[in-house]
Amino acid sequence: MKSITIKGSQRESVGKVSTKALRNAGKVPCVIYGGDKALHFSAEEKAFKDLVYTPNAHTVVISLEDGASYNAILQDIQFHPVTDTILHIDFYQLEDDREVTIEIPVRTVGVAPGVLAGGVLRLNSRKLKVKALPANLPDYIEADISGLEIGNKLYVTKVANENYKIMHPDNTVVCQVRVSRAAMKAAQDAAKEEKAAGAKKAE
What's an example of a GO molecular-function annotation for this chain (predicted)? Predict the structure, then answer.
């Protein structure tokens, strides 16, 4: 999985006053869990642009001013309800021998025969939660749609991989090919016309 480096400064004080001062200075208060103890730090809000405002999944290297660095994943993020600015971010420290759970984006490959026949592909699950060792975390989950006809569904069992465990029930739908609205309306109109013609013939 691709990694993004965030440069930050360790926080000595974590009270409300210092937190407010950080935010006023355009910085985001953060904490890393999963180690011996929680580590508090802050970083410029713009440093999180490529991590937060993207459909992709990344691991993070948190590089602090004292030379220490930590491998982590984003665990939770809080936004301001009005301005949408980032208020706080929680990270979880990665260990090579410890599995983690993270949401991975789904990417479709192939061409569905049902789409060529006039159907519409609907991606029900844009991301799937998986559990794996850090080294086995994929950049994305590949969903092969080349066998989907109109009305067919692709379940998570079809995108399983031995490198990670998908944390969803087997009947979870990843994507499906549905009848388009235009085709459905045309079928309904044709049925109405056929019914009207039948009624007129019966007269």
Answer: 5S rRNA binding
Residues 62 and 72: beta-carbon distance below 8 Å: yes
CA distance 6 to 8: 6
Q: How many angstroms separate the CA atoms of 169 and 51, rounded?
A: 28
Structural domain contains residue 158: yes
As a whole number of angstroms, the distance between CA 197 and CA 199 comes to 5
pTM listed for this prediction: 0.79
The per-residue pLDDT for range 72-124, each reduced to its tens digit, is: 999 999 999 998 899 999 999 999 999 999 999 999 999 999 999 888 999 99
In a domain, 202, yes or no: no
Boundary-marking domain end, from 63, 94, 125 = 94
Check whether residue 86 and residue 151 sit in a common domain: no
**145-166 tens-digit pLDDT:** 999 999 999 999 999 999 999 9
Residue from 125, 116, 114 nearest 178 by CA = 114
Mean pLDDT value across residues 21-35? 91
CA distances from 81 to 46, 84, 132 (A): 19, 6, 33
Domain residue limits at 150 = 101-185
Query: How many structural domains compose the chain?
Result: 2
